[in-house]
Every structure is written in structure tokens, then in C-alpha cells.
Design brief:
heterodimer; A: about 110 residues; B: about 110 residues; globular
């Protein structure tokens, strides 16, 4: 079945790198996403990776995809206190006309000064 | 106004009340979604509408009743809810199977 798993909590110091990990189960996923949720807000798309890529870099964000192990990670370089939030990975099951996403439970990132 | 908006942002209701959540998207998307976000659980997809037609209903209890009068508006009508229905209800929209854009959510508390 569809299942996406993440560790629940990560704590880092400002300036360090953060690595948030995710495992998924459906090898037919076309896209994998990282969303950020700040307190009291909805989900904000951070970045995504197509399933035939193994790495994508976007400024401070680096996404690594190991399709063989069904493992996805998000690395945030030079983590800032404003990066404190909950981070969700999601796999896209793909559909015609709309998108079906399966989300992980989210990783709460706490950045201390 | 741009993006996806939701009203109200907070709602407290009794188990015998009837209320409605509203979502509006200004992005010209064809698909709209309702999700339920409970503490320590993954986001649960509730309903999907594509060009006003319901395409997904993930075994949601009938006390939740969606309505999509047009591609820009989505409602979730609530009646005789239970305390375990207290959660953050998120609306999202997308153009076809492209990325979803989320609204800020309605924080619902059922007493």
C-alpha cells in the first residue's frame, strides 16, 4: 500500500546543515515533493524532484533521491531560525486531470540560535 | 486577491450545529481538494473535484458534505460532527496533475 515515513523531529543550530529524510513505498511515483508548514499556515511547496532524477539543487535546498531504496532527503544549507517549521514529503501517484498526493507525517525542524 | 483563500480561519461548533467551510482559488485551476490534518497523522485526502465533478471520496463519513459550484469555489458542509473531527482542514488547488497550492486552513474545534 501507499506509505510515506519521516522522522518526527530534528533539532539543529543556526548555520548548520539540516537533513530531513523520507522513505516511500510506491515505485511508480512520478514526482516527489517537499512542503513546508509554518505555525498557523497552510503548506508551501518548497521543491520537487522528478522520479528519473537523483539530485536537484535550488539555492540552499538540495534534494537527493535514491529510487532503488525509495529514499528521499532534503538538505537545507546554512539553516536559519526562519527555517523552523514542519516539513512534509509527499509522493505523487499521478492521475489524469488531478494529482493524488500521499504525505508523510511531517518532520518538525527546530533551529536554535 | 491571489492564491487560495479559506474562510473562516477558526471555527468552534457544537455537535448539533451545521456549518460550512469555504475555499476559493484565484489561480484558474481545474482541480480542488479537501484535506484533513490531525495532530501526529499524515494529511488525509478527503475529496477531489475536477472541473466541478467529484473524482475522489476517500471513505469520508456522510457528516462531511462537499460542494463545488464552479471551478473556483469549494465548500465543505458540516453537520452533527464528533469531537474527533476537530482538526485543521486544508483546501488546495492544482492545474491538472501539476503541483498543488494550499490555502491557510480552517482550524475546527468540535465541542
Amino acid at each position: 500500500g501507499e506509505d510515506v515515513e519521516q522522522s518526527l523531529f530534528l533539532s539543529v543550530r543556526e548555520g548548520d546543515s539540516s537533513v530531513i529524510n523520507c522513505t516511500y513505498t510506491d515505485s511508480s511515483s512520478t514526482y516527489l515533493y517537499w512542503y513546508k508548514q509554518e505555525p498557523g499556515a497552510g503548506l508551501q511547496l518548497l521543491t520537487y524532484i522528478f522520479s528519473n532524477m537523483d539530485m536537484k539543487q535550488d539555492q540552499r535546498l538540495t534534494v537527493l533521491l535514491n529510487k532503488k531504496d525509495k529514499h528521499l532527503s532534503l538538505r537545507i544549507a546554512d539553516t536559519q531560525t526562519g527555517d523552523s517549521a514542519i516539513y512534509f514529503c509527499a509522493e505523487s501517484m499521478g492521475n489524469t486531470g488531478f494529482q493524488k498526493l500521499v504525505f508523510g507525517t511531517g518532520t518538525r525542524l527546530l533551529v536554535s540560535p | 486577491e491571489t492564491g487560495v483563500t479559506q474562510t473562516p480561519r477558526h471555527l468552534v461548533m457544537g455537535m448539533t450545529n451545521k456549518k460550512s467551510l469555504k475555499c476559493e482559488q484565484h489561480l484558474g485551476h481545474n482541480a480542488m481538494y479537501w484535506y484533513k490534518q490531525s495532530a501526529k497523522k499524515p494529511l488525509e485526502l478527503m475529496f477531489v473535484y475536477n472541473f466541478k465533478e467529484q473524482t475522489e471520496n476517500n471513505s469520508v463519513p456522510s457528516r462531511f458534505s462537499p460542494e463545488c459550484p464552479n471551478s473556483s469555489h469549494l465548500f465543505l458542509h458540516l453537520h452533527t460532527l464528533q469531537p474527533e473531527d476537530s482538526a485543521l482542514y486544508l483546501c488546495a488547488s492544482s492545474q491538472e496533475a501539476n503541483e498543488q497550492f494550499f490555502g491557510p486552513g480552517t482550524r475546527l474545534t468540535v465541542l
